Amino acid sequence: MRSPRDVGVVVVAAGRGRRAGGGPLKQFREIGGVPMVLRAIRPFAAHPEVAHVAVVLPAEAVATPPPWLAALRGEGVHLVPGGAERSDSVAAGLAALPPSCAVVLVHDGARPFPSRDTIDLVLAEARAGRAALAAIPVSDTLKEAAPGGRLVARTVSRENLWRAQTPQAFPRALLERAHAAAVPGATDDAALVEAIGGSVVLVPDDAGNLKVTSEEDFVLAEALARR
Amino acid sequence: MRSPRDVGVVVVAAGRGRRAGGGPLKQFREIGGVPMVLRAIRPFAAHPEVAHVAVVLPAEAVATPPPWLAALRGEGVHLVPGGAERSDSVAAGLAALPPSCAVVLVHDGARPFPSRDTIDLVLAEARAGRAALAAIPVSDTLKEAAPGGRLVARTVSRENLWRAQTPQAFPRALLERAHAAAVPGATDDAALVEAIGGSVVLVPDDAGNLKVTSEEDFVLAEALARR
């Protein structure tokens, strides 16, 4: 049975981080000759079940988008100005998706290498009625510091701990309810669903789906893009 | 006041991980033309306060070391066969350090870029009588899975959480007591000190001091070494 083309995607790239010394927005920096956020958008825009992609950007980037971004408009890609908090930006993207989008994926514009496998796996969970997120098991030893200091209070067991990544996938009604009830400070959308008692499933992601923030991350992303 | 040359270092490189399809031990793979474990050893061997470095390796690598490793012997570098568990390997390295080493640093042989700043900072803590470890604040959203499954039980607050790295530094007597009391399963030496009630201090590390395990890590390390 073929799945319907009823998926909407919110790509969150509303941050205003710039290179030290000015220069373009971080999400517009090229990785292997392709702007980072374009890499983040492409696997979704090319997916057969995806009908609409809302790309949430700083307001000035929506007003005067670079040509490669403006060119995406009209192919189901919508440019949406972001809000004050991350969750405001996701909500703005969500509101820009037509009601025909029954399933919604949220992806971080600073993750330029989402895999088709992971997209399909989180999507399958959302079609089954549950929220799902890409995640990686914690492999580091974790220490909890005593409040306000640098003294170790304890080593935290990493058993059953995962690092949350994106894409995250949701039945649209569930994500909308979660955002309507949102409390400030949540660092991902799955947490909003957890807060209203919704079921959230972890989907093992591949290590290549890194978040690109620091200069070291850009070095790695360049090297990965070249291979 | 000049600090005495009384520091011993244990570099733990006793793992038997190999490249897919055979090839050299992971710790002997070259990064920017220099074997990884040699990069891990050098900043310690070159430190003015370090008198001895015990490099803990698989037994066969101690029996027939590669020439660049054999050449280090006699310059205060000792090659020591490892044990079954990580803590056995550290204990073997510790036993190989002469009693004149009053302060001991432990470093992971899979971290080829320890910085001089971090070494000096953890060393200063150990000279003040406390255990210390290099660490990085957790920046990921963490999820705890329900036991034995993939359902999210909760989002774990990352406030006050740090990822433990190496080098870790200890007054020698404290580390010896901690190892004598060691329980199996500890993933770092600081945890053994915590277990006997010793004080452990977190020292903010730089992001460049990465642990090289996966193929992606080797790509990043190559790129960092080239810069």
Describe this structure in words.
The structure is a homodimer of 227-residue chains. With 227 residues, the first copy, chain A, is α/β, with parallel strands linked by helices. Chain A has a single domain, classed as Spore Coat Polysaccharide Biosynthesis Protein SpsA, Chain A. Chain A contains 8 helices and 11 strands. Chain A has helices at residues 36-45, 59-63, 67-70, 86-95, 116-127, 172-180, 189-195, 215-226; strands spanning 7-12, 30-31, 34-35, 50-57, 77-81, 103-108, 131-137, 142-145, 152-156, 161-171, 200-204. The first copy, chain A, has a 7-stranded mixed β-sheet, sandwiched between helices. Chain A has a two-stranded antiparallel sheet with strand order 2-3. A two-stranded antiparallel ribbon of chain A has the order 8-9. In chain A, strand 2 (30-31) and strand 3 form a beta hairpin. In chain A, helix 6 (172-180) packs across helix 7 (189-195). The longest helix of chain A is centred in the middle third of the chain and has 12 residues, at 116-127. Chain A is globular, with a radius of gyration of 18 Å. The N and C termini of chain A lie far apart (36 Å). The mean pLDDT of chain A is 94. At the A-B interface, strand 8, strand 9, strand 10, helix 7 and strand 11 of A face strand 8, strand 9, strand 10, helix 7 and strand 11 of B.
